[in-house]
Amino acid sequence: MATAVVIAAGVTGFLVLGGDKDDAASPEPTASAPTRTSGPTPTGGDDGRRGDEPKPVVPGWKVVVNPKRGIAFDVPAHWQRKDPDWASYVSDNKDPEDTPLVGFLAPAVLEEQWCTSDEDKNGTTENTPIAAAGSRGENGAKNTEEAARHNVSQWIYGGYAQPDRSKVKPGAVESFTTASGITGSVATATSVGVGKKGKCDTDGKGTAFAFKDSKGDFVSWTFHGVKGVKEEVPDATVRKILSTVRLTGGSARP
Questions:
Q1: Which residues span the domain enclosing 186?
Q2: Mean pLDDT over the full length of the chain
Q3: Is 46 inside any structural domain?
Q4: Cis ω before 163 (30° cut-off from 0)
Q5: What's CA 241's distance to the chain center, in Å?
Q6: Do you know which Pfam families this protein is assigned to (predicted)?
Q7: Is 144 helix (H, G, I), strand (E, B) or coil?
Q8: How far from 230 is each of 8, 227, 234, CA to CA, in Å?
Q9: First to last CA, the chain
Q10: Domains contained in the chain, number
Q11: Domain-located, residue 227
């Protein structure tokens, strides 16, 4: 396993050299939240994605591909794509094992160093991005509604609201069909009243779309980002990104 870096307050990223840690988060809710670790920024990212990758469906945007899951989506051109083997996750601040609550693979990040701080005064800075989006398998999910609801709630709790789950406010779960014809369930959640204990503390918002891949396995796409600041990604942009989610091989089952 390569070096880990923080890409958000409470959000950890690392290169996966084997294993399946993007799917390793427990399918059941836990009562805790994320560990803040950090290290040197890895090389890679946008420069590593070329060749026969799919073309974006939104003119002027760029495509993000998770080759392991066969999922693609588009993001605006100023977002940074991480390596296909880059995983990001949130974990419990109280968990010494840094066990993921939820994570995703091959993400795209908007302004990775939007806010930088050293809250614990240990000499190591942590970076908070404006937003990130990625995809993952949903091992253990019973249906798309459950997968979407649990996924987005874990991201908001782990990345923004912990240690107080009461600050996570789930939105409605609704049916959604992407432009490519994938039908699944979309769930949203926000954090409310987090407060600004540290320089980079802010409320967050998230959107998760769960569906079945061409093999009939449950998978998902998720967005999370800061909320209530001028740099916040508009909901219309989040929905536009979501609408581009597609499979890179085969076709989705309803």
A1: 4-40+54-114+130-247
A2: 81
A3: no
A4: yes
A5: 13
A6: DUF8017
A7: helix
A8: 18, 9, 10
A9: 36
A10: 1
A11: yes
